[in-house]
Specification:
It is found in: Peroxisome. Helix 5 packs across helix 10 (215-233). The chain is α/β, with parallel strands linked by helices and 257 residues long. The strands form two sheets. The protein has a six-stranded mixed β-sheet, sandwiched between helices. The chain has a three-stranded mixed β-sheet with strand order 5-7-8. The protein has a domain at 6-181: 2-enoyl-CoA Hydratase, Chain A, domain 1 (Alpha-Beta Complex), CATH 3.90.226. The protein has helices at residues 30-45, 67-72, 81-90, 107-110, 141-149, 151-160, 166-171, 184-196, 200-212, 215-233, 236-246; strands at residues 6-11, 14-19, 51-55, 96-100, 103-105, 117-121, 125-127, 164-165, 177-179. The chain binds coenzyme A (COA). Coenzyme A is lined by residues 24-25, 27, 63-68, 103, 105-106, 129-130, 133.
Length: 257
């Protein structure tokens, strides 16, 4: 199940899924989405796994989708690895805990809407820069974010699309607690181990009940957003933004109507 960039192991009833591509700030390519989707589906089937811990490397959680991949191999169709990953996390039957250090960008932020417990370091930085790169929100964030914080605050986060602090993420109820950076992983792991010691059927049923009423709308939102962001990725605004990122220059949107 482990690949070079996604490391998985199981100990104390906890499957740890670690993003491990520090040279690209843990940007997610198609192989990584596939490995994470498979790990999450396997965790559901494996009776030795009773909780899942999702984390990155010491100074970075995830810089979002790999921008080179966005340019060269944009996701297409319902079975695109990114959509398989989104469905696997949204539908995970066992509890998922996230430990976030450093940047959590794009899907690195929006996946947190789908975990059960999330802990972040004081220097974590969250960002949903979809509009900045010529696309639109994904992973049901356009549905869940206004539901959680109201339209005005949601619009601020995804239309002005500026990075925000761990304190703001806590205020938005996106995470459970802010901790000193060095304590995040141990704290999150301790919570995952504690979940793994709970009666498993009661825990799974409770998670199912918490998610049940929103689940159909979340599934619909994931696909509806994808119908918009997939074609947008090939459009001129995204091409300009993504090429500018790769060329390490500021994008120029002045010519677009
Ligand atoms: N896709 C591909 N490569 C990425 C990447 C991404 N999403 N994010 C970072 N990288 C690469 C950089 O191109 C750079 O590669 P290089 O060393 O070959 O030049 C390397 O990772 C380090 O990134 P850098 O930007 O120098 O690190 P930083 O600490 O200054 O900033 C981020 C980190 C995450 C804030 C910044 O890289 C960033 O904003 N990344 C893009 C995020 C994004 O827009 N994601 C898509 C969301 S939908």
């Amino acid at each position: 199940m482990s690949t070079q960039h996604i490391l998985c192991d199981v100990a104390d009833g906890v499957m740890t899924i670690r993003l491990n591509r520090p040279e690209k700030k843990n940007a997610l390519n198609q192989a990584m989405y596939t490995a994470m989707a498979d790990a999450l589906r396997n965790a559901d089937q494996d009776s030795t796994v009773r909780a899942i811990l999702l984390t990155g490397t010491d100074d970075c959680f995830c810089s979002g989708n790999d921008i080179q991949d966005f340019l060269e191999m944009p996701p297409a169709g319902e079975d695109a690895p990114v959509l398989r990953f989104m469905r696997a996390l949204a539908e995970a039957r066992k509890p998922v805990v996230a430990a976030v250090n450093g940047p959590a960008v794009g899907v690195g932020t929006t996946l947190l809407f789908h975990v059960d417990l999330a802990y972040a370091g004081e220097s974590a930085r969250f960002h949903m820069p979809f509009v900045n790169i010529g696309i639109c929100p994904e992973f049901a964030s356009s549905y869940l974010l206004p539901q959680m914080i109201g339209h005005a605050h949601a619009a601020e986060l995804v239309m002005l699309a500026e990075p925000f602090s761990a304190a703001r993420a806590l205020e938005c109820k996106l995470i459970n607690a802010v901790l000193p950076d060095a304590q995040v992983y141990a704290h999150a792991r301790a919570k995952a181990v504690k979940l793994a010691q709970q009666p498993p059927n009661a825990l799974r049923t409770t998670k199912m009940l918490l998610k049940r009423w929103n689940a159909p709308r979340v599934a619909e939102a994931i696909m509806f957003e994808a119908q918009h962001f997939m074609p947008m990725l090939g459009g001129p605004e995204a091409r300009e933004a993504l090429t500018a990122f790769m060329q390490k220059r500021k994008p120029d949107f002045s010519k677009f109507a």
